[in-house]
Design a protein that fits this description.
about 210 residues; mainly alpha; 2 domains; two-stranded antiparallel sheet; two-stranded antiparallel ribbon
Length: about 210
């Protein structure tokens, strides 16, 4: 068990976070660089670079998204912990090998008495964190080239996509909980995420 700034992280939770981070990084790297295992071993240096890029973008975006849920939940007196979905992680890796990337790595589960507003704030914390990360990645993207610029570009795109995707008001996604709490805040975050993603793609010549 690890305790940081009043937040308790359980041993199983730390394991699940680490496994999900690595699995997502590997799956996204495989998606970016389709290859057989033999080719991966033959070009380990190149694949390692792509894997590092994935860990620093998709991995960090996922990790901080989930930690934001947990931190806000704990602030509201909840017992909260991340639990990985190992079946979905295996499916993400298998899908990436087939050229498809889809990941539902797990979720932060919390329990205790809570209001609709508090539940909505816990949910919206994840997408808002991704939007904040996109801003953090934007500055080095504008200033640097090379690997730093490449990581930053991917960091902006990935986090804007994660923010927009998670605000879809469907199923277990954050958007459903946020809309049930406050439609105005739901609309604001969703429009900001989608608008920023489209604006970045168009503004920097990626096209749609």
């Amino acid at each position: 068990m690890l305790r940081l700034n009043g937040i308790t992280f359980y041993r199983d939770e730390l394991r699940d976070l680490a496994v999900a981070w690595v699995a997502l990084g590997f799956a996204f790297a495989m998606f970016l660089e389709p290859a057989t295992i033999q080719r991966m071993l033959g070009g380990a240096g190149h694949f390692g670079r792509t894997f590092l890029l994935s860990m620093l973008t998709v991995g960090v975006g996922f990790l901080l998204h989930e930690l934001a849920h947990k931190i806000v939940a704990v602030q509201f007196g909840q017992v909260a912990a991340f639990r990985a979905d190992y079946g979905m992680l295996a499916l993400a890796v298998a899908g990436a090998l087939a050229g498809i990337f889809f990941a539902a790595p797990g979720a932060v589960y919390h329990r205790g008495r809570i209001t609709t507003r508090q539940n909505g704030l816990i949910a919206v914390a994840g997408p808002v964190t991704n939007l904040a990360l996109a801003v953090v990645f934007l500055l080095p993207f504008l200033l640097f080239g090379g690997f730093v610029g490449e990581v930053s570009q991917m960091g902006v795109l990935v986090n804007l996509f994660l923010g927009a995707f998670n605000m879809i008001p469907f199923g277990p996604l954050d958007g459903k909980t946020v809309r049930e709490w406050d439609t105005g805040i739901f609309a604001l975050v969703l429009v900001t995420a989608v608008g920023s993603l489209v604006g970045f793609l168009l503004g920097f010549g990626f096209g749609l």
